Amino acid sequence: DFQRFLRRVDDITNLVQGLNSTDPAVKEKNIAETEKRLHDQETSKEEESKTVVNRTVINPQASDVANAEAANADGFLAILEKDAKERAKQRRRNEHIANALKEKGNDAFRKGQYATAIQRYTEGLEKLKDKQELYTNRAQAYLKMNEYEKAIGDCEWALKCNEKCVKAYFLMGKAHLALKHYSESRQCYEKILEIDLQKESLFKICMNEVSLEEKRIKDEERAVRELQSGKLAALSVKELLQKLDRPGQNILYYTGGIRLLTGAMKHCTEQTLFRTNNGFSILKDNEVVRRGFCAERKNIAEVDLSVSLLFLWQAVCAGNEENQRLLLTHSDVNAQLPKLLCSGISEIQKETLALISLYSENENGRRLLVRHQDLTKWLQILMTFVNSTDARANSAMNILSDLTEEERFKTQCRVMLSTDVLPLFTQLLTSAKLVNQAALARCIGIMGNLCADVAIRMRMAESKECWQGCLKLVVECFDVGTPEFRDCLFAVLGLMMNLLLESNVIIQDFAVDISGSCMSLLRDKDGRIVTVKAIGVLSRILPASSLAVEVAVKEGLVKKMVKFLKAGGETTSNYGLKTLSICTRSNRQAQEDLVKSDKRFGVLLKLLDSENEMIVGNAAFCLGQCLVVPGAATSLLNSNVVMILLKHAGSDATRTSVQENAAIALGKLCVAEPRHIFQLRKLNGLAILNSSMKYVHS
Known about the structure:
Strand content: under 5%
Radius of gyration: 37 Å
Number of strands: 0
Number of helices: 38
Low-confidence stretches: 51-58
Helix content: over 70%
Mean pLDDT: 85
Shape: flat
TPR repeats: 166-199
Organism: Psophia crepitans (common trumpeter)
Keywords: Repeat, TPR repeat
Protein name: TTC12 protein
């Protein structure tokens, strides 16, 4: 009996471990086994409730042991039953959340926001790991992002949840086809027919697609071999253009010819020959080429043709301003450039970005773009490449960085800023872990540069969502701490400093949160740049809210600032003194903290010797504010503070705040401790002080 009891305990232990398994199949199997055992237990209880006369004489001691064993087993099963009910309840809650996240992901997918869709599906899977629809939906989003391996992985997980999932096999077949795994793609489509015979029409379409793709690759390879090995390879630019004028040829013929023409562009002479022999008319006069290049939804042959044309135009326009001008004045090219950037086809996007880079990297090229292109949507379009994990992201950021040098581009950016650009930018800020962090850092820096435009800065500073995104990114960057995230942190702090040149209600509402985030960054042990930027943000956010000042002072801001001022550095001193000036201006605790932290005002006196007028003016201001603290003025009796303040009060500094703050501090010093007047008279300071009163406004 005891051995049987131990076996039951082992079985139940295994069940509990199975219920906690991360494998959906194992988990489902154990749930079913648990429910069966609970059902059997209920049945046995019903049978026990029936009255049965048992006349067997039983050893009382043995009975006690058996009863204890039964009680232990029943108690364990009761706990298991309670646990199962709690798990079922939790599962229902998680299923509700997962369904809501799935709908949010579907909405993002319909809008073309595939990175956001992936994020929502992932969040849903964190709540419910065995929900097949989330795996297949995420796989579909991965396909749109050209992440074919990840799409296959999700399809395999979906099949573990439901081995007869037709959608999983369909998407897996698509992913394998994109990777040119033709055999694996066919196997996936054959599985669809095995599962559901009514899907025969879908099966035939899919299998035909695989066959056409295989044939296309073979035909293209054969056409290219013929072009390269035949007489065409030896033709001049003029002769090649004449061959490409031949109507009625296969699209592969034109693609191969365009590639040969690209290879012929070795010198500026060939570029000139291309232009003088009407090479740019290839798109206008050849209907096959034009139709393939302008197709909204391109097949693989049309993609290859478009990529070949983009390669050709890069070769033709490199370093040739006249060719660049002619290409952009072509109506089809002009209309297609933004569409190609939005195509979602990585090869086309990569070469389109390379072509645009030829223009953006020099002043004349940028002017051509601004003159001939409607750039109102370009900020949004190029910003989407932050989602790319390859070289496209860097190319797009290079172009954006170049375009921000053009005032006309900034003007055009205002048009779509509030409706399209800011929602996308906010989404990137809140999805930092899912995007290209290096590109995100550059994107944030570009938005910071655009803040030089007052209209753009004002709209961004009024965006509640933008501030929320910035704060979320600061927290994430500080927690993760990788070099990529650190670059994002530098950039977002710089952006916040630029936005804080504005003053509005939204900034006032976020002041406590912003200053709190910066206070956390002051504990950073890795880099002074983070600390300096955090102090810079503090110096600009604290004037917006007296509550933020009060909270920051209570958290020890003054002591931290004195510590950083002791370490030195002109930028740190500048921001640090400005921060202390704001705190000591109206907060008594800040004044007392500064007196305690800076013994005999050693740090402030040292800063009063600086050659930087802003540092001197703020140091004098802080000193003047702290002299109301009892004993502060007395602690300076044996110092040369009177001489230093007199020197600045009578100086010819460009900033009148230097003379004003020094004169006020000197006056407060003598009022708080009259013994300083002896030194003042000795230095003939009353006359100097009198002459500096013209700078004092109140």
